[in-house]
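Homework help thread (please don't just give me the answer)

Our assignment gives two proteins as sequence + structure token strings and asks us to describe the second one. The first is just a warm-up. Here they are:
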Amino acid sequence: MKVGGLGSVMDSLPRMLREQGHDARIMIPRYATMDTDKFPLKTTVKDLKLASAEVDSYGLCVSNVLEYEENGRVTAYFLENMEYYEKRANVYGYADDPIRWLLLCRGVLEFVKKSEWKPDVIVASDWQTGLIPNMLHVDYAHDPALSKIATIFSIHNLSYQGMFDHHFVSEMDYDEGQSAIPAINDERLLKLNFMRRGIRYADIVNTVSPTYAQEITTPEYGELLDDLLRERRSSLFGILNGIDCDSYNPEVDGIIEFKYGVKTLYERAKNKTVLRKKFNLPDKGGSPILSIVSRLTDQKGFGLFIDAGEHLLNNYDFQFVVLGTGDAGLMSFFRSLGERYPDKVSVHLSFDEKLPHYIFAGSDAILIPSKYEPSGLTQMEAMKYGAIPIVRKTGGLADSVTDYDPKTQTGNGFVFEKFDNYALYGAIVRMLETYRYPNFWTALQKRAMNVDFSWGKSAAEYVGLFKKAIVFHKEANDKESSLRQNL
């Protein structure tokens, strides 16, 4: 049920944790579009009742919890509910999403309570599961089994905090995160800030890159939660996401036509010819190809190219490939650019799973000028193929890309700091000038391809974080027990 980067993480991280000897399982809703012929499920808990204050008045229960086995091991659980999951065509995007995620949070905990399998740590990802730490801290604080479970709240994107714009919340609707969770039929639930509650109650708060963990404690990046995050600074950590190095490996990639690696980089040029054919661009020999593979949104910073793009295309010899969908204004701009520069620019403004592989293997550089970027996967995937990233120094981009230095011949990309079109222009020009020197460019590509972005490294860091969460949770429980005894 992959939806963006979070879907990639929820597949790859537990998988790598299992390879490292840990029993890591995920739990998500049982969505209607799942292919149960390909992924057969069996019932593990029947008639799981959500016996809690927020649903008693509604008389609601979740029918079953299903499990999925992979290589003889249970790796995933699925919460059934016909009304809120199986009758829905999409994963996200409904007005009653807060109810849907409330049910998931409660269902996870009631399932763990009933199940023989008890985890040491629960990782709640993003706002949709932010109520899990809240419920464990309040509703299950004295449960003999659940009270022992540590929680990590993992922030993948702080700007999404619920089904409302947190920048425009009235004083009456403001959720400080400490009141009781409203009933399922209470309108206040729709304005509940799940993100704030996850941050407030979790034993540890984690983000998907070290730099983003620092950035979100500032007003510029904190999305009105920076005060709370500064309070929790001692429990706030950042671990850079990894990538699936089996799926994104030009030596074995089944999608691209010509395989290559660091030692056979000369084969890469053939993929450049393939890319030009797929995007109907003329063969311009040694001209570099700059690319975009992204959601076309304001956050990704592509508005900067509106001011810089035409000047670059008018004054420098390069071709430009764009793959993505998003804001109507940006899509219109890139479409217009393709019409005005048909020999230089080609765009594909819809989602496609295979084209990114062709673009990574065939383009010389990839543009990622994000306003903010919690982690980012595209720059890492592109680097494994030798496509050099041009990035703004923020979040995971700052942690994964180091600026090229022509004097010392170090670095694996081109980095700019200020969020303005002149800084972007300068970074692209630096890339185009460096490309003119084949030996320097090849060395730059090899450095990019040799960076270790595997999940093995990130998963080992997560194991250390899990152990820390267990210690933090035990210390908090011991402190609370001591206070009760003194009273």
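The one we have to describe:
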Amino acid sequence: MATTSAKANDHAMQASLAVLKDVLGDYHPRAFAVRLWDGAMWESEANQPAQFTLVLKHPGALRRMFLPPSEMNLSEAYIYDDFDIEGDILAVFPVADYLFGKSWGKMEQLRLGQRLLSLPREDKHKGEDGTSRLRGARHSKSRDQQAISYHYDRSNDFYALWLDQRMVYSCAYFHTPEDSLDAAQEQKLDYICRKLRLKPGEQVLDIGCGWGGLVIYAAQHYGVSVDGITLSTRQAELARERIHAAGLEDRCRVLVQDYREVNTPDSYDKLVSVGMFEHVGEAMLPIYFRQAWKILKPGGAFLNHGIASTSANANQRRDHSFVFRYVFPDGELVRISTTLHAAEDSGFEVRDVESLREHYALTLRHWVRNLEAHAGEARRLTDDVTYRIWRLYISGSVYSFEQRVNNIYQTLLVKPDHGHGNLPLTRDDWYV
């Protein structure tokens, strides 16, 4: 029996090494190593220090990773621990891009498939993904509530491990790449307030207020009164605690409420939405902007801050995307042109559009470093699969922004008052 087992292991090792050489043998410079389940190594190229080590956890790991070949299959093999990544996970994504962009001849495909099929099949139980948990029509109020709860209600303490001290879960604003995350997030909050030109006594609505960072900052530094709405119960609870601790209960409140349920026409001087727009959905954009138009006073401004896809068919691939299945169920990224068209159709005048793509890549780099530095605590607060999902999602997002797969825009919209936008002639006051 031992001899049979040894032979099977030897075959799996030889087949695995053959597969690795087939798929990565001509990748240069190969600045990474591979460690097999028994400790055997396929070293990085000579004179190339390994940026990361790919760790195959069992003899069938490569079969799980590449059969069938897809982004989803490879992602699930990672989150369910068929393989691990030691070292710089950000260096993995160019290698993955190379693999999925490589052209294979028919004979090469046949040889690779035979080698993968010769590896042992490991039937592991997969957890339930976010999309499969949701019930009802996409972007109905009840289903949106479920989707938001899935993402945000897992643990406030988990998010606190890797976000800044205010727990601002959106793109920061860097004056220099050396800025700390705390400094860059405060700079972002202040930049938004200046773009909106907040004035003491104004009434502001923050749509998707998260843990209340902007609600509190705007009230403290600009003398406004702020309502914040979120669909996350846990976010609202912590936001209220922070408002109470800051002594701002007379000027700030946070409600668990859908944006479609705000029924106070012409009641807000300014609107802001930061990092919530990705949950709205392309089909709902007319409703979203019409609702914003309805509740904003004439002459008021609306700053909409959200991620955009650079691809015209991004949402057609949504159900096959790891991020939208495991991280943001029902999330959608639309092109900035689509967003602007919907805003204008609702009556808004577009006054400014700014890309913060490089800023988000820097933000995400801070987040993934913080998460990895607190890996043990993250696993304790959630579980190993959740830690792996977030590590992969955040690091993959760095690559998406750096490679211009995704972008992020702040769009300043105005509801004209008899043709007047009530704005100064220049943006000089934004940069004081």
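TA reply:
I won't write it for you, but here's a hint about the kind of observation we're looking for: Residues 2-24 form the longest helix (23 residues).
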